[in-house]
């Protein structure tokens, strides 16, 4: 393979033809999507990010939406989960309040999230990744790190070509696009994947890392959010290049352990491995109301629906959690979180719900809430979950009943059976289908 000896010529991302000399278009198919880099065939850490994932799935499934602005979210009081690139041109961004998104793009088509569908498609993409290497570290439903170091003998191709084949396969078989970042470490691979979206493939090599980072803002470093950025700016630090001139000792004295991260990442030093065993930290569901709610009865009904949704996801993943977390946001956007640790891990909607209600009761004082959520953390496998309760016989009976309800819902759909907590009690001012958030 002659081009392997001259990575500056590279190959075509569309037809994968090796290039014999430098040109603007592929010598075989005429595509301008050529991949060249001095370290093209030496890098093995990749970051894959699906392009506008939720919106892209909806457009794939409904071709009539292809050339229209699409926002995935819900309710006037909700937030944007994902916006397609057409909507982004109009200023719509992820996590933007829905009313602001619709002000920016009033002709957008708003679609309620279908998390079960997105999870299913995400798993298909994840399996394609695992076909390439066992070292896949998921970060979310639509992005992951891959370590392809040492796989050249298996694939008879270097990682750069393998990842180009992968992105083409996703488009061909699933009708979706991904962007790829390739580097020698996770930090720079993730940065690279943000370039040239959608359908991007960008490379940051080791030899260019210091120069590449020098003029970039400090917010490019993982962990530097708005608050910490303001702290650094007060100290006169705005660019990564400034951090490159500072010694480790002074940085740690000023910023503690974060100072060490600033020192290392500003120099492109990242020794973190791709960890395929990475597990979810929590499973949760929440919903924002169209109108603020203070009524215990209404909140309990919604809490039950949320608890059932969390329970379904835990059972589907064969996991359980020991800590129940209640989340409330008041009309003035003040956030409350309350949690309680259980004696044993659970995946039962009944235990999640009853624990959540006991936490909620203490917060009912006339405050009007705009959001409620329930979650489970301290996750483990379900082998030790929900042992028989020899003291509370009724709890055991409720667990048996829940198993029966799960079977009916599995056969006839989630709406086939409703409990008395929710039947006819969830009013229209609350979203019918709460958003799920990992």
From TrEMBL:
Monomer. The active site is at residue 143. Its cofactor is Mg(2+). It holds the Pfam family IMS. The gene is dinB. This is DNA polymerase IV. It comes from Phyllobacterium ifriqiyense. InterPro entries: DNA/RNA_pol_sf (IPR043502), DNA_pol_Y-fam_lit_finger_sf (IPR036775), DNA_pol_Y-fam_little_finger (IPR017961), DNA_polymerase-Y (IPR050116), DNApol_IV (IPR022880), IMS_HHH_1 (IPR053848), Rev_trsase/Diguanyl_cyclase (IPR043128), UmuC (IPR001126). Mg(2+) binds at residues 49, 142. It catalyses: DNA(n) + a 2'-deoxyribonucleoside 5'-triphosphate = DNA(n+1) + diphosphate.
